[in-house]
Design goal:
The chain is an all-alpha fold and about 110 residues long. The protein is about 70% helix and about 0% strand.
């Protein structure tokens, strides 16, 4: 599942595997193997991925999101989700999302089931 989360976050940013590889200073084939689950990235790289994508290592490794411990962190998390939602919604201006689609989208952005 780590690979699927890396791929989803990379796509969210609009980056190719090569673009992510350049940012991480690894080969594009290494990124492909991480995304396919054929190879696990070293822990140092997991930390770099979390910083690059603005997510926690917990999210990358387990898919879980810890509740922010202070108001500033909560506000920043909300702003990140809101920015991501605006970016995704703007890709479909001619076809508005249904209420069910918006609920699924927000659930995916927040990372809760």
């Amino acid at each position: 599942m780590l690979g699927a989360r890396i791929a989803a976050l990379r796509r969210r940013e609009g980056w190719s595997q090569q673009g992510l590889a350049q940012r991480l200073d690894v080969s594009p084939s290494a990124v492909g193997m991480y995304e396919q689950g054929r190879r696990e990235p070293p822990l140092e790289l997991v930390v770099r991925l979390s910083e690059l994508f603005g997510v926690t290592t917990d999210y990358l490794l387990k898919g879980s999101v810890r509740a922010p411990e202070d108001a500033a962190a909560a506000a920043q998390s909300f702003e990140t989700v809101l920015t991501d939602a605006r970016r995704l919604v703007s890709r479909r201006p001619e076809q508005p999302f249904t209420a069910q689609e918006l609920e699924l989208l927000l659930t995916a952005l927040v990372g809760e089931e």
